[in-house]
Amino acid sequence: MKQGKPLITFTILIFAAVIALYLGYYIFGALNEPYQTAQVYSYTANDSVTAEGLVVREALVLPAQSGILELTRAEGEKVGKGQQIALVYRDSQAQASQAHIEELELAIELLEDAVSQSGDLESAARLDENIIQSMVSLRASYALGDCTQLREQVLGVKSSVLKRGYTYGDGLASADLSARLRQLREELAVLTRQSARATTRVSAPTPGVFSGLVDGYETRLTPETVNQLTPTTLQELINSPAGEDGGAMGKLITSDTWYFAANLPQEAARRLEEGDIARLRFSGELNRDVEMTVDRIGATEGGKTLVVFSSNRYLTLTTLLRHQTAELVFESWSGLRIPKQALRLVEFTQEASDSGAASAVSKVGVYALVNGRTEFREADILYEGSDYYVVRPLGSGRKILRAGDSVITQGTGLQDGLLLEG
Q1: Global pTM?
Q2: Which residues face 49 on adjacent strands?
């Protein structure tokens, strides 16, 4: 055993030496490579700052109701005055009765359509097409993860299938369908009378956009009070959210305009004027650029200036937004991104078209590596970053800079058409 230990140690040292030699050779080769390349890709550079703040809306909080609550409006759905928002059931039996009422109403609607159908092949084909379209729509929403219209789409498939069965599948005569229709109507009338005393319908007291989220900011921060904010009070509101209000069933957003109150660096705020149109890039549920009006430029405290932006677009998509960190974009440059080391100033000899006299012309561009040869490709600088440029390709035809090209970042003696030996 004692003789084996030196052998193991010797073997380990041999392996370590081999690895060290390999790494040394690799590093030496990389440092002595006659040229190095980098890939060109499409890029957008932004002159922007981060804006942290709160979304503000005019909202009417709807008080909670005692009983079993069933919301009948989706998040962000527009509601007219007097339209139903929710149903409140006295107990589970009342809730079950309402479900049965809805089934009867659907069955009656389908039977009425079935009685009115002509029964010809054209009508059957139209029903078959409706079934297919309903299923395709449902499948597409499932694939996209979009459940906003799930209930309506499921009912669409169900109603189309049942309508097809009522009209052509059961061999029922028109008289049989009419008798069944009368029976369902009588049953619905009885059940509706019984359920009326146990079910309360909640209607919208004013037009608006429905939201089920009540986060406590509805009374603390309104379009009226937003103009009284300072950077300090806004930050206090951000740091101390009230939390969801359990004593409310939801709210109605009653104004078409929404606001974003944000604290900006003082230098960035100086670049804005009230009435300007600013572009803010939101993430999360909104996830888009929104052009907003600079509604108010407020006080400055500790190097931060409070700025209030407003917009009347995308209101239905902002119902769940409150604390947001958006990007205020002043200007953007889109083009091709290249490392700074790749850009070169090259002199070419050019003959005048009229006199034929030769003159030296300087061009800015890069050397692209194409099939082992260098090709000079002219470019115009749009934006300079810390270690890169955003450029616009110049010229036309094959020898134009494109995304995906490999450009030389390190090399000597480069010229157009040079063959680089590996």
Answers
A1: 0.69
A2: 328
Cα-based torsion angle of the residue sequence 205, 99, 129, 165 in order, rounded to the nearest 10 degrees: -150
- Beta strands of 151-287 (E only): which ranges? 199-203, 208-211, 248-253, 258-265, 277-282
Roughly how many angstroms between the first and final C-alpha of the chain, as a whole number? 51
Helix, strand, coil percentages (3-state) for the chain, rounded to 5, are: 35, 35, 30
Q: Is the pLDDT of residue 120 over 60?
A: no
Are 43 and 336 within 8 A, CB to CB?
A: yes
Strand order in the sheet with 59-63: 59-63, 248-253, 208-211, 78-79
d(CA 229, CA 217): 14
Q: Angle of helix 121-144 relative to helix 150-164, nearest 10 degrees?
A: 160
Render pLDDT for 167-224 as a digit per residue (tens, 0 to 9).
555 555 566 667 888 888 888 888 888 777 778 889 999 999 999 999 999 999 999 9
In 231-343, the DSSP E strands lie at 248-253, 258-265, 277-282, 288-301, 304-311, 323-339
